[in-house]
Amino acid sequence: MSDFKEISSSQCYGGTVKKYQHTSHVLLGSVMKFVVFTPPGATVEKPAAGVWFLSGLTCNEDNFITKAGACRKASELGIALICPDTSPRGIKVEGDDASWDFGVSAGFYVDATDPKWAAYQMYSYITKELTDLIDANIKNVDVAERTAVMGHSMGGHGALITALKNPGRFKCAAAFSPIVTPTDVPWGQKAFTGYLGSIEAGRAYDAAELLGKYPAEGPKLPLKVVQGTADSFYPSQLQPEVFEAKLKVAKNENLSVEITMAEGYDHSYWFIQTYIDEVLLWINKYL
Ligand SMILES: N[C@@H](CCC(=O)N[C@@H](CSC=O)C(=O)NCC(=O)O)C(=O)O
Questions:
Q1: 98 CA to middle of ligand 1, Å?
Q2: Which of 35, 58, 99, 109 has most ligand 1 atoms within 8 Å of CB, for mutation?
Q3: Ligand 1 atom nearest residue 152's Cα
Q4: Exposure pattern of 21-34 as b/e (b: 16+ CB <10 Å)?
Q5: Confidence (pTM)
Q6: Where are the alpha helices (DSSP H) in the chain?
Q7: From the CB of 270, is ligand 1 less than 6 Å away?
Q8: Is 215's pLDDT higher than 70?
Q9: What are the structural domain ranges in the chain?
Q10: Most C-beta atoms within 10 A of its C-beta, which of 57, 59, 151, 254?
Q11: What ipTM goes with this model?
């Protein structure tokens, strides 16, 4: 029996920000929290489009909703924002807090195959378990038809791979400073070696690699990337130019990417706060 429950609710721009908690089966008993902003006017008969935001390293379900200033534009556009956590919680794996870029709050949106990290099934958690939970319990939010995915950094990687691995599932995907070539950069190499046993195994979760695997027969998937030029992780971990080059090589007319280089912006939520309206307006065109 599900222990899904609402644990807080606050009004915001005429809508509501609610936090929920449940025990996850796929994350082996982790006690997970997530936040949903529902815009005014969303009903069971007329649910709001559900837009996911996958957060980055060191984050939980709160970072985006409290720091990005997204609710005002989401309220105007009638968009629901779904903010999951970034790793299993409430369970202990030895060494899971040894570093900030692996383990707790660094689940990397993969399904771990190393038995030690068996609870780290964040790809299945987001794409199946949490989607089904929201579909069944939060009926004024649409996660089946009018849905899109966005994210930041590790979560930008999560957003891109989730959309590229599930053609037709999302109307579009947007990413702030995403890790687009994880098999070629230190954050991804560390995560894939730990969770999957090798960097090679990570190719199945590498957005730049997945561009070449997207079906030629469609459906169309518009992508947007926004990258700050003063980001301390650019270009050592974040390589939008490589992503753009790989898209050209893929020659798939169903894929397109719009890359915005944000002059002088860093990796922080100040950057996200500055560009969130532009990104939500872009997403809304496809919903
Ligand atoms: N170790 C530092 C930096 C951590 C950091 O910048 N985290 C980003 C995501 S990085 C890629 O996934 C972030 O979103 N942090 C949360 C925030 O609210 O800014 C540190 O611990 O600060």
A1: 16
A2: 58
A3: 12
A4: bbebebbeebebbb
A5: 0.98
A6: 63-67, 71-77, 122-124, 131-137, 154-164, 186-196, 207-211, 240-250, 269-286
A7: no
A8: yes
A9: 5-286
A10: 151
A11: 0.95
